[in-house]
Amino acid sequence: MKREEGRRLEELQWVRAVKAGHPEAYKYLVQRYQNMVYHVCLKITSDDTSAKDLSQDIFMKAYSALPAFREDSSFSTWLYQIAVRKCLDWKRAQQREQARRSPGEVNENDWVTSETPEQIVLSEEKSSRIRRMVDELAEPYRSAVRMYYFEQCSYQEIAERRGITAKTVESQLYRARAMMRKKGEELR
Fold first, then answer.
1. Name one Pfam family in it (predicted).
2. What DSSP character marks residue 1?
């Protein structure tokens, strides 16, 4: 525990040095956390080149946001959250692009169910189970879930494509989530 506290104090010294106008101190933080950030990116993107590019973007974003770092959590936790959010934004953009190019094709890893860092990366087993639960939903719930989560369509886009109101789409998604939650509880 003392070692962890010592590490946290050391990283705070480097953060404070950067905030005090010594940008060269940021090099230490990059060296210390570049592997962590790269592996987060690689896990989410499954692509080495994209992971490397995103890692650079994440460190640039963290550097520019460092004045807003309140020091109520460790720097590594704060950086991890930036990395996950940046990667999720990248993944959503890739999914939208893929949906525009080939709206019928869906990769089972394309659906992220939670925005919290602890729940970001779904296991293959969980992903398969979610896919099966979606496939077992009755229409119109199945298509509403697929269009919203897999194709990244807005409520309005789904409503227009299906000839219903956005409020109906919202209701169908709410009910579909409730059905899937119930099914998930039954499987436990």
1. Sigma70_r4_2
2. -
Residue 172: what pLDDT?
A: 92
Compute the mean pLDDT over every residue in the chain, rounded to the nearest whole number: 80
* 123-187 to CATH, choices 1.10.3720.10, 3.30.70.120, 2.60.40.420, 1.10.10.10: 1.10.10.10
Token pair belonging to 73 = 């959590």
- What does the angle CA 11 – CA 14 – CA 16 come to, to the nearest 5 degrees? 110
pTM for this entry: 0.52
Instruction: Tell me the CA distances in angstroms from 55 to 41, 86, 101, 149, one per residue in order.
Output: 7, 9, 27, 26
Which tokens belong to 126? 């969980």
Q: Where are the beta strands (DSSP E) in 11-159?
A: none
How far does Cα 111 stand from its chain's mean position? 10
Binned at pLDDT 50, 70 and 90, residue 60 comes out as very high
Q: CATH number of 2-100: 1.10.3210.10, 3.20.20.150, 1.10.1740.10, 3.40.50.1000?
A: 1.10.1740.10
- CA–CA dist 77, 70 (Å, integer): 12
CATH 1.10.1740.10 in the chain: give the residue spans: 2-100
